[in-house]
Write a structure and sequence with these properties.
Blueprint (H helix, E strand, L loop, with lengths): L2 E9 L17 H13 L6 E2 L9 E10 L5 H9 L6 E9 L9 E12 L12 E3 L5 H8 L4 E4 L14 E12 L2 E8 L6 H13 L7 H8 L18 E4 L6 H16 L4 E5 L4 H9 L4 E5 L10 H8 L7 E6 L4 H8 L6 E4 L5 H5 L5 E7 L5 H6 L6 E6 L25 E3 L8 H8 L3 E3 L1 H5 L10
């Protein structure tokens, strides 16, 4: 019986002439992956990817699928396949999926991040990971210029001459320009991309940022529908991170993690910690750690769809890397339940989401986070004073009868600039607003339990 398997693949594209397998021994990611899969499957394998990447392009979460008639567990498709892959290609996850899943056609959007390094000196360590310029770039001008690309347009001016796409029409869903020290990041999400489209965007925006062209030149180039009007490509030293946004009922949790945390959060602020709440199994815990999570949350509230039994949670915690903090979440729980959880590991930090008093929180003699549900009119600074012994305060959206994980955003302007405790920001954080949240609130950490709550089909089918 034929089965369909989906993989999430991470690769450094520096040594490859793109994703697609080519003739005459030209190195490609696809060829290496298919050869490794064939060893495990014991038959030739052809993979289908969500979208081909160009020469030198890196991927954080490329999604591919293939068909096989052999029986293998999911670890064989990851650990086993990785044994036969070069060190710059890694399968980070695998799942069996329904027959109607298609890596390309089930994808709703794709996302790139293009990183520019603005400095007097060319970087040595990241020489194949960023585009370097010695010029000082005006990020606000670049941001303003990039806004004209939003929406559905004919992007002929931004496609390579050899582009094989049937149409130059594409829809840009999100285009932001952010500066992080000496790094300038172009963050673009679209229904699909043309050949060299992102690099051509970068070339136009860098010319505008350097003051060589006016902001209006971006629209003039777009309207021209002529590649020769689009200026020069930047140098090939580029880091483009790729990940498709798969249709929700087929989306796998680890793809969303790769998208939200590894790309958005870690590059937005290396000082902002990332907590992923709602861990229910070992695979997801290790995948989150692999994508850079600083803390994992385990929910011991039986009414939650992400509830986990204490013994199972402690078994997972025992396998976590040493610098990942496990956080135990309770809602007005009995002391016996809390004691049974924290007795399993000395690493536990407790997070209280109910009406627990400070005295009760202190009684367990563990570091703790107190969650506050914020609504209009709340004096957040005063609420912080009610728990002076807390290690941090988690701020979430208020929703009547729901202790947390609402997936809703509250009014961040209610948070004072100066507070007595570190802030863990929660509530409706998504790939579209997390950059803004970090920039506006400057939290110590972000908690994305709401992001996971919309992905309920984490078993047989990839979401």
């Amino acid at each position: 019986m034929t089965k369909k398997v989906v993989l999430v693949v991470e690769y450094n594209g520096s040594e490859y002439k793109g994703w697609q397998a080519q003739k005459f021994g030209v190195p490609s990611v696809q060829e290496n992956l298919e050869k490794a899969l064939a060893v495990i499957a014991n038959h030739p394998v052809k993979v289908v990817c969500a979208g081909r990447t160009d020469s030198g392009v890196h991927a954080s979460a490329q999604v591919v699928h293939f068909e096989t008639e052999v029986e293998r567990n999911e670890r064989a498709w990851t650990i086993g396949v990785n044994t036969y892959l070069p060190t710059d290609i890694t399968v980070v996850a695998a799942r069996y999926v329904a027959d109607d899943f298609h890596a390309r056609f089930s994808a709703l959007s794709r996302r790139y991040r293009y990183v520019i390094y603005s400095s007097d000196f060319c970087p040595a360590i990241l020489s194949k990971g960023v585009t370097w310029t010695y010029k000082t770039l005006n990020v606000q001008a670049m941001k303003k210029a990039a806004s004209v690309f939003l929406g559905t347009h004919d992007f002929s001016s931004f496609r390579a001459i050899g582009c094989q796409a049937n149409t130059p029409i594409r829809t840009i869903l999100h285009f932001d320009v952010q500066q992080l020290g000496q790094y300038i990041v172009l963050d673009v999400r679209a229904n699909a991309f043309l050949h060299h489209m992102i690099r051509n965007f970068a070339g136009v925006l860098m010319a505008i940022g350097a003051g060589e062209k006016p902001v209006s030149w971006a629209k003039q180039t777009l309207d021209a529908k002529d590649r020769t009007k689009g200026g020069l490509l930047p140098r090939q030293r580029v880091c483009i991170l790729w990940m498709p946004n798969i249709q929700k009922n087929l989306m796998c949790l680890f793809v969303r993690w790769g998208l939200t945390f590894y790309l958005l959060l870690k590059s937005q602020s290396m000082n902002c910690k990332v907590k992923i709440c709602g861990i229910t199994n070992m695979d997801d815990a290790l995948m989150a750690c692999g994508h850079g999570a600083d803390a994992l949350g385990f929910v011991f509230y039986e009414k939650s769809p992400r509830y986990i039994a204490p013994e199972k949670a402690n078994a997972i915690v025992a396998q976590l890397p040493p610098f990942v903090t496990p956080v135990a979440l309770f809602v007005d729980a009995e002391a016996s339940l809390i004691d049974s959880v924290i007795a399993g590991s000395s690493r536990w930090v407790i997070q209280f989401h109910g009406d627990e008093s400070e005295q009760e929180c202190l009684s367990y003699q563990r570091p703790y986070i107190k969650a506050l549900r914020v609504r209009d009119g709340d004096d957040v600074a005063f609420l912080f004073t009610q728990y002076p012994s807390a290690s941090a305060m988690l701020l979430d959206a208020f929703k009547e009868g729901v202790p947390g994980g609402t997936g809703e955003v509250f009014n961040w302007s209610l948070i004072p600039d100066e507070l007595s405790k570190p802030i863990v920001l929660a509530g409706g954080l998504t790939p579209n607003n997390v950059n803004q949240a970090i920039a506006q609130v400057s939290p110590y950490a972000v908690d994305v339990s709401g992001e996971l709550s919309c992905l309920k089909a984490l078993r047989v089918n990839l979401r």
